[in-house]
Specification:
Blueprint lengths: L4 H4 L2 E4 L6 H31 L1 H4 L2 H28 L5 E3 H34 L4 H4 L2 H27 L8 E2 L6 H5 L7 H32 L3 H29 L9 H23 L1 H13 L2 H7 L1
Parallel strand pairs: 1-3
Antiparallel strand pairs: 1-2
């Protein structure tokens, strides 16, 4: 088939979760709750960090604000389309829209991986070199590292997208997931994709696995370098939230991308975890364990005047 693939397959059909209206309605309510909670929590963190001078001047919270923005973007790539499909009988997505969704999924996802690595380095400097922390983690360096994270995500996504759009698609056109991603999409190509699969697994799988190893090694180094039991417990408490976020994000990504593109029955559930649930849990994990963030949120709440208005009524 030598025709351009956009002339052969103009749209894909997403498998979704269920064809039963009652189940789809219940899932719509559940995922809408997840998405609204994601927006409320992440926007609250960004506003809190931006409005509090102490937090905004701290590299850790500056990076945390950027992580919240990435979580918002990451969730928005797939969840609105998922919610709309719960209300439709046929879950269709145009070819061009599918490629755009695939591009931004890997763009934002890879950028978040790099940013979490930067945050691990930030914790290493803060705990192991506290006297030089503000000098090493300057605002200029933080901005550079955030920009580098976005650039790294862009390069990674461009590679994934170019490898995908050069494949011919002539049917079938049913994507075995609720969004467009590389593994289920390239299985629909009309040619042998073995080499492409190896390239993509080595790209996405190597990126997620190597980043995860670097992160775990960084936190292990922190604990090893701290000799005192009290200092080690304090460091573990500080890094616990980061480790939880890292595990929730990287675990599913490694499961999906660091293996050959075979289909498992749990793939959709794993995809839900890192696409929908993790962006919602990240801000909750950080705020529930961080006294400074909760204190700043209380100040923001007091400055908003809502507390005073409530008392007056």
């Amino acid at each position: 088939m030598n025709e351009n693939q956009t002339e052969v397959v103009r749209e894909f059909v997403l498998a979704g979760f269920s064809q039963t209206p009652a189940i789809e309605a219940a899932l719509f309510v559940l995922f809408l709750f997840f998405y609204v909670t994601t927006w409320v929590c992440n926007v609250l963190i960004m506003l809190t960090v931006a409005s509090d001078n102490c937090l905004n001047s701290s590299p850790m919270y500056f990076l945390l604000g950027n992580l919240s923005f990435l979580d918002l973007c990451y969730s928005t790539v797939t969840t609105p389309k998922l919610l709309a499909d719960f209300l439709e009988n046929e879950k269709r997505i145009m070819y061009d829209q599918c490629i755009v969704q695939l591009f931004f999924l890997h763009f934002v996802g890879a950028a978040e991986m790099f940013l979490l690595t930067v945050m691990a380095y930030d914790r290493y400097v803060a705990i192991c070199r506290p006297l030089h922390y503000t000098t090493v983690m300057s605002r200029r360096l933080c901005c550079f590292l955030v920009a580098a994270s976005w650039m790294g995500g862009f390069v990674h996504s461009i590679v994934q997208t170019i490898l995908t759009i050069h494949l011919p698609f002539c049917g079938p056109n049913q994507v075995d997931n609720f969004f467009c991603d590389v593994p289920p999409v390239i299985k629909l190509a009309c040619v042998d994709t073995f080499v492409i699969e190896l390239l993509m697994v080595s790209n996405s799988g190597l990126l997620s696995t190597s980043s995860f190893v670097v992160l775990i090694s960084s936190y292990a180094t922190i604990l090893v370098k701290i000799r005192s039991k009290e200092g080690r417990q304090k460091a573990l408490s500080t890094c616990a939230s980061h480790l939880m976020v890292v595990t929730l994000f990287f675990g599913p990504c490694i499961f999906i991308y660091a293996r050959p593109f075979s289909t498992f029955s749990v793939d959709k559930l794993v995809s839900v975890l890192y696409n929908v649930v993790t962006p919602m849990l990240n801000p909750l994990i950080y705020t529930l364990r961080n006294k400074n963030v909760k204190s700043a949120m209380q100040k923001l709440w007091d400055r908003s005047g809502l507390t005073r208005k409530k008392q007056e009524t």
